[in-house]
Amino acid sequence: MLYEYSTGRIWLTDFDRVRLAPAATDLGSYLAVAPSSQRHALLEGYAARRPVPAGEELGWAIALSRLARLADPLRRAEPSWRERIGADLTTIERIAQSPEKEATWA
Fold it and tell me: Judging by DSSP bridges, how do beta strands 2-4 and 9-11 pair with one another?
């Protein structure tokens, strides 16, 4: 459960993929699914406390996290699972070609 003090909002979240890992891996896991506005806010807050991992390292972590989630549409029996997986593969391939671009946030 997460609680946002400024608004009083409460929500449940699933931590099945959370683990102790290098910072890039943990950040990449969140950044792989977060909207761009939240990505920036997370990295800005993170940078206020410690150095953000290098762009290429973070980009690879995002790609690997997306790869780990690749079968999720199939697992959830989404009707458009083939299209979603195809689109995700295209995104992963684009990230792999220039991982440092995926991690640009400043």
Answer: antiparallel
pLDDT by position in tens, the chain (length 106)? 677 788 888 766 665 555 567 888 888 988 998 887 788 888 888 899 889 998 899 999 999 999 999 999 988 899 999 999 999 999 999 999 999 888 776 4
Beta bridge partners of 2: 11
Alpha helices in the chain (DSSP H): 23-31, 36-49, 55-68, 72-75, 81-97, 99-102
Q: Name the residue among 41, 56, 49, 61 with its Cα closest to residue 106.
A: 41
Query: What 3-state DSSP class applies to 41?
Result: helix
Neighbours of 6 (CB within 10 A): 5
* CA quadruple 79, 94, 53, 13: dihedral, nearest 10: -10
